Amino acid sequence: MASIHLGINLEFIRSADKPFEWGVEKAAEIGFDFVEPMVHWGRELLSEAGYFHSVSMLDDPLRVRRACERAGVRLSGLSAHCPLCKPEISVEYLKQAIRFAAECGAPVVNTDEGPKPRWTTEQEDFVLMRYVLGEAAAVAEPRGIVIGLEPHQQYSKSLVGLDRIHALVDSPAIGINFDTGNSYLCGEEPISWLRHVSSRLVHLHAKDISIQQSAERGKVTGTPVGCACGDGIIDWQSVIEVCRSSPRDIVLSVECGTVEQAQRSFEHLRSLLPR
Q1: What are phi and psi of 67, to 5 degrees?
Q2: Listing from the earlier edge strand, what are the strands of the sheet with 34-36?
Q3: How large is the angle between the packed helices 61-71 and 87-104, nearest 10 degrees?
Q4: Is 91 exposed, middle or buried, given 0-12, 13-18 or 19+ CB atoms closer than 10 A?
Q5: What is the Cα–Cα distance from 9 to 58, expressed in whole angstroms?
Q6: Is this model's pTM higher than 0.70 or not?
Q7: Rounded distance, CA 84 to CA 115, Å?
Q8: DSSP of 213-268
């Protein structure tokens, strides 16, 4: 039986205009044991000025490791979403994210197929994704890093579509990062879908969807963040029960929009786990 741990995606401080290190400390203060930072290429003003949580992969990976060690938390993974249908972006981005993850100590790199090019056919898109994932898996396998494919875009918005992407490359370095909120908004039934992928599950985005946002169901393929876990429509007790059947321990990485929502999410999810 897999162990379940609580973590948080650092997007929860996006609206707070605070830097990466502040977010790690705040996550630890709330009580989370794991954090999931976002990484980016190059340099940009907001992160450099300390107003945004993302970390440049031109920075030292040990910056991430040391921040977590100081706060007493661990890394559940890196948020490294890039358009798999656009190899001119995603091949080198994912390979660098994997190397960065290996050095900073993150076991999982999460991504999805992203927006597709306007001019390609579906058949061409799957060839492009196979190429990207094959290149990324070749870098991930010897480093013991797993790529978590997330339901989020035009092809992964269904159980069949996500399965098709996962099957493109036969590699132990490719698994599923399930997103409870995205799967619901896509129009699918989250618990059934989670049960279907439980044997391939490597990470989980714990995203709840409010009654108000439920009006978007079937009209969108996902959302950046949800409401506080426990305030929406997701059955978290069932999510936890299914995750326990996974062959590896799973971190529920909360995706919400504010510090206050993060606090409420932690309290709700913690109440469902044995002490």
Answers
A1: -60, -40
A2: 74-75, 34-36, 4-9, 250-254, 201-206, 174-179, 146-149, 108-112, 78-83
A3: 50
A4: buried
A5: 21
A6: yes
A7: 8
A8: GGGGTTT-S--S-BB-TTSSS--HHHHHHHHTTSSS-EEEEE-BSSHHHHHHHHHH
CA distance 68 to 239: 27
Sequence-distant (≥ 6) Cβ neighbours of residue 229 within 8 angstroms: 206, 207, 208, 236, 254, 256, 264, 265, 268, 269
Per-residue pLDDT 10s for the chain (275 aa) are 899 999 999 999 999 999 999 999 999 999 999 999 999 999 999 999 999 999 999 999 999 999 999 999 999 999 999 999 999 999 999 999 999 999 999 999 999 999 999 999 999 999 999 999 999 999 999 999 999 999 999 999 999 999 999 999 999 999 999 999 999 999 999 999 999 999 999 999 999 999 999 999 999 999 999 999 999 999 999 999 999 999 999 999 999 999 999 999 999 999 999 87
Look at residues 131, 183, 187, 139 and name the one whose alpha carbon lies nearest to residue 162.
183
**Strands of 61-101, DSSP E:** 74-75, 78-83
> Nearest-5° angle of CA 208, CA 14, CA 258?
45
- Cβ within 8 Å of residue 271, ≥6 positions away: none
Locus of tokens 């918005």: 157
Ordered domains of the chain (ranges, CATH): 4-272 (3.20.20.150)
Cα dihedral angle (67, 178, 206, 143), rounded to 10 degrees?
A: -10
Structure tokens at 27: 């996550």
Alpha carbons 125 and 121: distance in angstroms, whole number: 6
Give the whole-angstrom CA distance, residue 47 versus residue 51.
6
